[in-house]
Amino acid sequence: MMQCKEALPLIHEYLDGDLQRSDSQRLKEHLISCQACHALFKQLEKTDAMVRMLPPVKASDTLTAQIMSGLPQMKKRNTWMDWIRKHPAVSVAVVFATVMFGSFMSMWNDDTNLMVKGNDLQDVVIQGDTVTVPQGRTVKGDLVVQRGKLKVEGDVTGNLIVIDGTLNLASTAHISGQVTQVNEALGWIWYKIGEFVGMLSR
Ligand SMILES: [Zn+2]
Q1: Where do the TM regions start and end (predicted)?
Q2: Domain assignment present for 37
Q3: Cα(182) to centroid of ligand 1, in Å?
Q4: What is the whole-number distance in angstroms between the Cα of residue 84 and the centre of ligand 1?
């Protein structure tokens, strides 16, 4: 009888498309008898399918350009997508974790409310759907605003990401990182994948 710790690498190989037929039979038998591995298999398979679906659905050219410009070490246009194709199991697991257990669910389940995310929000002023970084104040790290009007008069030391909202940069504003405006859920997924691959290539 196959052990769970033996089944996991076989699941990854299966999703990568290079599992031997004999192993495939043994894996199938284990998945029938083990609920935990079967659930994991289903989850990884679903996420794998989701990632494979991404390339044909085009992200806007500017967004792709923004993602690519954030990946200085990977010069060729589709290198990072190739990397994901070659390592689906690893990348799928990480993308799955990032997207599903990170900010993604709460951000997109909550479809009327403003969402503000960041490591340092104490100087950020929120009034109605308007989010302001006042002049002379500094937000350390990234600032993410969804479905709101972001007005920056002060400093942001990280990246600024506005999702389904508007951005107003005052002449006194200073953003150290990149400014990204995303207008759809798919754009956000692309952004997260780009961020993840960028992290790996560092
Ligand atoms: Zn098992």
Answers
A1: 89-108
A2: yes
A3: 40
A4: 26
Q: Do 128 and 98 share a domain, yes or no?
A: no
Ligand 1 mean position, distance from CA 18 (Å)? 20
Owner of token pair 């199991």? 89
Number of independent structural domains in the chain: 3
For residue 138, pLDDT beyond 90 = yes
State whether 193 and 128 are in the same domain: yes
Same domain membership, residue 119 and residue 105: no
Give me ligand 1 centre to Cα 66, in Å: 42
Over residues 46-70, mean pLDDT: 59
CA of 142 to the centre of ligand 1 (A): 40
Whether this prediction's pTM lies above 0.70 is answered by no
